[in-house]
Design a protein that fits this description.
The chain is of the alpha/beta class. The chain has a domain at about 60-380: Metal-dependent hydrolases (TIM Barrel, Alpha-Beta Barrel). It has helices at about 40-45, 85-90, 110-120, 140-150, 170-185, 195-205, 215-220, 220-240, 250-260, 275, 280-285, 305-315, 355-360, 370-380; strands spanning about 5-10, 15, 20-30, 30-35, 50-55, 60, 65-70, 75, 75-80, 95-105, 130-135, 155-160, 185-190, 245, 265-270, 320, 400-410, 430-440, 440-445. The strands form three sheets. Strands 1, 2, 3, 4, 5, 6, 17, 18 and 19 form a nine-stranded mixed sheet that branches. It has an eight-stranded parallel sheet with strand order 7-10-11-12-13-14-15-16. Strand 10, helix 3 and strand 11 form a beta-alpha-beta unit. The model has no long low-confidence stretch (mean pLDDT about 100). Bound molecules: N-(aminocarbonyl)-beta-alanine (URP) and zinc ion (3 copies). The site of one zinc ion (ZN) has 3 residues, from loops.
Length: about 475
């Protein structure tokens, strides 16, 4: 093999979910070929056209963000990151794979939604990408289509207990989709909030003149997240199906997941940086600034954060994704001035997940390996991408991040790369920064310079959940 298609990453600390190794990494034809201890005979023998000095750096698997919404239509507008801008920002933040949600609209086939998402994403992405499917219309035809999509590598389907009239499914529809998942191996993802009850509270709040962004958090009650989480678990048990609860925000919802897992049920949960680092204090910011933090499930009082961190440590929560769904403050969030229910739901974050979780390592919330577990390895396993993605091992894609654990940075709209006019973390100081990013051996970020291109990212069909026997 000529040395020209080989890269060696020398001198770094390789951190995976399982190990920390002082090792050099040999890359051949876009894949990891071997690891060997610094200075070992094996490593000394490697010649390569490209040698990357990783001294003083962590060498990490690229981040796997399994919950993004590029260009999502919502509330009469579209999420402001395209697949081009959003995946570029992801790369800047050390994420090398996203799993976005293709959307079935009511009255249409799953396939139509999937085709639309391919049209948005194909030839546009800077990093590799895959799709889940949002199911908005459970019927006989949809259920049959699910089997076909699983065969093709769309192995997870999101259903909503929230948003009546938009994405909402009733319990019978959810049960039917779960039964199908029990048969065809798909993982059912649930947005667990009691949307019917929430809509009553929304109307009552608006009628009483409570129209500010903070009321978004007040009507979307913790009890209605916990109740929906409990109901989703029971429906999954009845169906004999596995369940993945998305964007868990409340301590009481974590308790429901923990109780289910104590019964050895195949129940999984994710949370997101916004629930770990932000709170209802942000939603209450004056002059409509709170709209920047409107997402569902909503931000919670700060007291909930301890339960989320504990859940991540005890494995009652397995994944941190971003639910990246940006809307500009000007022109988009503003649609809900005077009526919080018209604020498009969602927050930007795809660029900051790896850094915020590294800060959590420094703050003592999680270990360094758990950081890589919840941000890379477990999301890849959960959604059938491992070990191609999520680790650094012979045969894995060479999706590799050189991370400087001592660099200091301040998160800001002035410096981020997401296509949105504010930062949810404006002014937040974090230690640690992505320096260089490889995607299948190609340099996408080279010492803080973007060297990637739209269309480098490949569509990646997935296997089924790797936590199920
Ligand atoms: O507020 C959010 N999370 N927007 C995106 C859609 C969803 O429910 O995940
Ligand atoms: Zn959701
Ligand atoms: Zn989402
Ligand atoms: Zn390329």
């Amino acid at each position: 093999m000529s040395s020209s298609n080989r890269t060696v990453v020398r001198g770094g600390l390789v951190v995976t979910a399982a190990d920390e190794l002082h090792a050099d990494v040999l890359i051949e034809d876009g894949r990891v070929a071997a690891l060997a201890a610094h200075g070992s005979e094996a490593a000394a023998g490697w010649t390569a056209g490209n040698v990357i000095d990783a001294t003083g750096r962590y060498v990490l698997p690229g981040g796997v963000d399994v919950h993004t919404h590029m260009e999502l239509p919502f509330g009469g507008t579209f999420a402001s990151d395209t697949f081009e801008t959003g995946t570029r920002a992801a790369a800047w933040g050390g994420t090398t794979t996203i799993v976005d949600f293709a959307v079935q609209t009511q009255g249409h086939a799953l396939r139509e939604g999937l085709d639309q998402w391919h049209a948005k994403a194909d030839a546009k992405c800077a990093i590799d990408y895959a799709f889940h499917m949002i199911v908005s219309d459970v019927n006989d035809a949809t259920l049959k289509e699910m089997d076909l999509l699983v065969e093709e590598g769309i192995t997870s389907f999101k259903l909503f207990m929230a948003y009546p009239g938009v994405f909402y499914s009733d319990d019978g529809q959810i049960l039917r989709a779960m039964q199908r998942g029990a048969d065809n191996g798909a993982l059912t993802m649930i947005h667990a909030e009691n949307g019917i009850a929430i809509d009553v509270l929304v109307q009552q709040a608006l009628d009483a003149g409570r129209t500010d962004p903070r009321h978004h958090g007040e009507v979307r009650k913790v009890l209605l997240e916990a109740e929906a989480t409990h109901r989703a678990i029971q429906l999954a048990r009845v169906a004999g199906a596995p369940l993945y609860v998305v964007h868990v925000s409340a301590a009481e919802a974590v308790a429901e997941l923990a109780a289910a897992r104590d019964k050895n049920l195949p129940v999984f949960g994710e949370t997101c940086p916004q629930y770990l680092f932000l709170s209802t204090d942000n939603l209450a910011e004056p002059d409509f600034e709170g709209a920047k933090y409107v997402c569902s499930t909503p931000l919670r009082p700060r007291e909930h954060q301890a339960a989320l961190w504990r859940g991540l440590r005890t494995d009652d929560l397995q994944v941190v994704s971003t639910d990246h769904c940006p809307f500009c403050f000007n022109g988009q969030k503003e649609l809900g001035r005077g009526d919080f229910s018209k604020i498009p739901n969602g927050m930007p974050g795809v660029e900051h997940r790896m850094d915020l979780l590294h800060q959590a390592v420094l703050d003592g919330h999680i270990s360094r390996r758990r950081w890589i577990d919840i941000a890379c390895a477990t999301p890849a396993r959960m959604f059938g991408l491992y070990p191609k993605k999520g680790t650094i091992a012979p045969g894995s894609d060479a999706d590799i991040v050189l991370y400087d654990p001592t660099a200091e940075q301040t998160l800001s709209v002035e410096t981020h790369h997401m296509n949105v006019d504010y930062s949810a973390y404006e002014g937040k100081h974090v230690t640690g920064r992505v320096e260089t990013v490889l995607s299948r051996g190609h340099t996408v970020i080279d010492r803080r310079e973007y060297t990637g291109h739209a269309g480098h990212g490949q569509y990646t069909p997935r296997g089924t959940c790797q936590f199920l026997a």
